[in-house]
Structures are given as structure tokens and as C-alpha cells.
Amino acid sequence: MTADMDEFWVFGYGSLMWNPGFDYEEREIVTLAGYHRALCIRSWVHRGTQARPGLVLGLDRGGSCKGAAFRVAPERHDSVLAYLRERELVTNVYLERRLSIRFRDGRRGQALVYTADRNHMQYAAGLTVEDAARTCAISSGKSGHNADYVRNTVDHLKELGIRDHWMEAVASRMEVLIQAA
User: Fold this and answer.
1) How many CB atoms lie within 10 A of CB 105?
2) 26 is in which domain, residue-wise?
3) What is the per-residue pLDDT across 105-147, written as a single tens digit (0 to 9) for each?
4) Is there a domain that residue 170 lies in?
5) Nearest to residue 17, comparing CAs of 133, 129, 154?
6) Selected catalytic residue, list 7, 25, 86, 88
7) Residue 73 sits in a domain of what CATH number?
8) 88 noted as active-site residue
9) How far apart are CA 54 and CA 65, in angstroms?
């Protein structure tokens, strides 16, 4: 079974899940194979600065990722695509792709997805829970504190019934560090 291939779906795995910033017709929980959610992008704009980078999520190779897919009406395709490119490609650390997603009912479809560019200078591979928690506890940028980004992401994952044990561990350790400061 496949979804209508003419439909325009956008895959959210981080802040897009809780703050898409565009109108959509439908939201579904889906799985993207071949990539996993990771705090693997040094944020120099939204959650940090070049002097003190924060960390934001990227889709890194390997595993799978549950997230939210948003179906956009055909007449909004161009405006949503322009908005997403302005939002997600600020420093070109993400690669825009169309990848296969699997819906809970078994259907498959295509979605617009932003994956981490492993060759970009902002890519941060293989961080430990401790490293990520320390960075997120102290960083902030034009969109606010990095800790708020981590909290919002973890809270919204839970609301959607999605467990991400690594993100939960980072959030827990981050809170301990913030309380100790």
C-alpha cells in the first residue's frame, strides 16, 4: 500500500513536530528508516552562537526515527517549501531530501526531510549524553535557551507516544547540571 505519491508531506523529528510554523491538512506519526534523531548539529544561530554553540537535532545515518509527518495542501506547496528552506537551511547544515516514510497503517509515502550534512563544519558526531547535556545546559541563541529546546522536544515526543531514550537521558542530565549551577 502506498499513499498518494502526489501528496506533499513534511517529516518533523525535532522542533518541526511542536512548532511546524506552517498550515497543514493532516498530521500522522510515521517512521523514517535509515536515519535516527541525534543532537548532532552545532547551533550558531537559533540555540547558540559561534563563540558558544548549542546543539540541535539532525537526522543522522543509521537506525530509524519516529516523527510527525504533515500533509500540506497542494496550493500551499510553494510557500511551505520556501518557508522551510528559509528556516532549515540558514547555514546549510541540512540536506533537503525526499525519502520514504511508513505510516502506522502500513502505507508508504514520500516526505520532504532535512538530514544532517556530515561534511559540514557544524556537524557534531558521536556526542555522549554528558557532552550533549553540558552544552545544552549553558547555550542560548536567537530562538532562546538550548535547554528549552531539549525540554520541548522531549515533552512533545512523549505527548506523541514516541520514546527516545537518548534524548530523555540528555534532558535528565541537563536538568541536574542546571540545578547544580
Assistant:
1) 8
2) 8-180
3) 999 999 999 999 999 999 998 899 999 999 999 999 999 999 9
4) yes
5) 154
6) 88
7) 3.10.490.10
8) yes
9) 22
